[in-house]
Amino acid sequence: MATLADVARRAGVSPATASRVINGSSKPVADELRERVLRAVADLRYVPNAHAQLLARPQRSVVGVIVHDVSDPYFAEVTRGLQQVATERGRLLIICNSYRDPDRELEYVELLRGQQVAAIVLAGSGYHDAGFTSRLNEKLAAYGATGGRVAVIGRHDHFGDAVMPANVTGGELIGGELLRLGHREIGVVAGPRVLTTVTDRLTGLRRALAGGGLTLPEERIRYADFDREGGARATADLLDAFPGLTAIVALNDSMAVSALALLRARGTRVPGEVSVLGFDDMPIAADVTPALTTVRLPLVDLGVRAMTLALGPAGGQPRVETLPAELVRRDSAGPAPA
Amino acid sequence: MATLADVARRAGVSPATASRVINGSSKPVADELRERVLRAVADLRYVPNAHAQLLARPQRSVVGVIVHDVSDPYFAEVTRGLQQVATERGRLLIICNSYRDPDRELEYVELLRGQQVAAIVLAGSGYHDAGFTSRLNEKLAAYGATGGRVAVIGRHDHFGDAVMPANVTGGELIGGELLRLGHREIGVVAGPRVLTTVTDRLTGLRRALAGGGLTLPEERIRYADFDREGGARATADLLDAFPGLTAIVALNDSMAVSALALLRARGTRVPGEVSVLGFDDMPIAADVTPALTTVRLPLVDLGVRAMTLALGPAGGQPRVETLPAELVRRDSAGPAPA
DNA sequence: GCCGCGCCGGAAAGCCCTTGCCTTGCCGGG
DNA sequence: CCCGGCAAGGCAAGGGCTTTCCGGCGCGGC
């Protein structure tokens, strides 16, 4: 790789001058020298070594993002929001997938710290695991103590600014809708119980149902991986155990979509015999048949807000923003059969 | 941030010794000193500055990835394959979204070069734009000349190793299926015509249809953005212009899914009145109703192979691998109505 | 004609880390 | 007893870049 020294030599100037030309320093440089430097840059295909620059400048510009999995539609949307703001402000993103492995999350925080990132955005559900949570917090705090900015999406009680989707409220919306439609035999297809997102959504759901005098026994909840395969399995289990169900609540849309597919395969009419309700309102929700009734979470906005907080001025207090959930009625939920 | 010097000072050793302990150098260090260093590291929450390390060591470890958009399911899958191999080999990925903007692609190549990445993987269709292509090649070659590895996915005629999905063959498979089912009134919902992926798929399709004595007039092809919105618009256009169509070929599954949704909204039976065929076999393809007949491209494998090439030994010759396409018959395509 | 000032360019000091090479101190063998 | 050899640790030289500070030159003013 050509170095600045090479450029300077070829242009017949000092490295200092070359640097000034290349970086558009405010210090004036005579036109002729500037010209020579630029030509040398082009000739040598010189690109500054970003690491050396980072070492020499105090200023940090890259932002680290830790998500469960970018290829999961939920995070794909959130990431789009993050990207959007980052790009606007000329920041490069390093995206890390934790694949829902807490240890990997911890490692990535270290790694990003080592990369001297300007901020870390941690997206995705927290875990019911006090040990992990405190270790993570400890690491984030260490990072924050040296000027790093932290923003989390959808995690309670963490160091740094936070953006929270209204998971509890969303659960309540689902519950309210079920009551309104007269369902009493309800099953839940849930993600891993260790995720706070899952328990939050359940909390809301239970609360709303309780308002209608219904309880949700634990055996009517099936916990599985938070994706299509998990959804298919959990739905099958649930249906086999409780043939009389009139409504299935899936705690995310991926699971809801596979529940729909399974019901269809079994020849069960939706929503005639069984209603299906999802959560998240992923893009696909509107395109499946029947179109999915679900709770919309402003996924892209979640990312936008989080990145905005992370790149904004460091507030004295950690800020918490909650983004609202909204019920989207489509075709997959109807009145309970008589 | 604590530096190595801080650690050394606190442990009462030289930076050299501290470095050796931290990096597990083969050089022996007495247990007591080692102990002191490790404690200092823990006390100070020291994390090595990755940039300084990179400067001091010759070895490069990060890999850069340029895709159109990670949140697009196609690239989400490809990226998953890339990640998988990268993680296995302990490589960090920098993922950049070009959003199908050629200029941004060019910029990202520069940027990644500046980051001293060990390899660059460029995923996603090329463009019919000779000027751009040669500029890109020039940049990639400059990078390759200084020891950088390059792998492209789905682009012809580019510097570096390549992994090609069988787009032409896939098009032929679709064409063959259409002939088999007796369709003669065919419309195509296509992505931007500037993408080589789009023209390749069309080429295959046309070739197969020609084998059955059919031609595909240009006005039966609607070019739009390669996503759901584009698909909806193009499908509507096509249907309005040619009410007699019995089959719609969408050149990717996102477009096919929205075509399905649109037909449903219009009350058209699929495949009774109109058949719909997709391309890519994204995860969602099996879950929509009716389940999508499509061409499976081994998306994850595309990523796996590309990353394997990029991280493997530098071959003298650029290597090109083609991964096969496969027709997946589901429920959205049936015999042409009589 | 001289001084001083402003403008421009360069020398060099870092930024933080790794590592080749040297020093020191100790042991054992001759 | 001396020396060679080895183990253990430190010195210092980079690696590529930015930026402060300084010096030289040319010009204008007195």
Layout of helices and strands:
The structure is a homodimer of 338-residue chains.
Chain A lengths: L3 H8 L3 H9 L7 H14 L5 H7 L6 E5 L5 H16 L4 E5 L4 H13 L4 E5 L6 H16 L3 E5 L7 E5 L1 H14 L5 E5 L5 H16 L9 E3 L4 H14 L5 E4 L2 H13 L9 E3 L16 E3 L2 H13 L8 E4 L2 E3 L10
Parallel strand pairs in A: 1-2, 1-3, 3-4, 4-5, 5-11, 6-7, 6-8, 8-9
Antiparallel strand pairs in A: 10-12
Chain A binds a DNA duplex (30 and 30 nucleotides) through helix 2 and helix 4.
CATH class of the largest domain in chain A: Alpha Beta
Q: Determine the number of helices of chain A (DSSP H or I, runs of at least 4 residues).
A: 12
* CATH fold-level assignment of the largest domain in chain A: Rossmann fold
Main pleated-sheet profile of chain A: 6 strands, parallel
Mean pLDDT figure of chain A: 94
Oligomeric state as shown: homodimer
Which structural class is indicated by helix and strand composition of chain A? alpha/beta
Count of separate structural domains of chain A: 3
CATH architecture of the largest domain in chain A: 3-Layer(aba) Sandwich
Describe the global form of chain A. Answer: elongated
Number-wise, the strands of chain A total 12
- Give the termini distance of chain A in whole angstroms: 75 Å
Order of helices and strands of chain A: HHHHEHEHEHEEHEHEHEHEEHEE
Query: Roughly what fraction of the amino acids of chain A lie in strands?
Result: 5-15%
The helix content of chain A is: 40-55%
Give the name of the CATH superfamily of the largest domain in chain A.
Response regulator
User: Ranges of chain A with pLDDT <50 over ≥5 residues?
Assistant: none
Overall radius of gyration of chain A? 26 Å
Name the chain pair whose interface involves the most residues: A-B, 51 and 50 residues
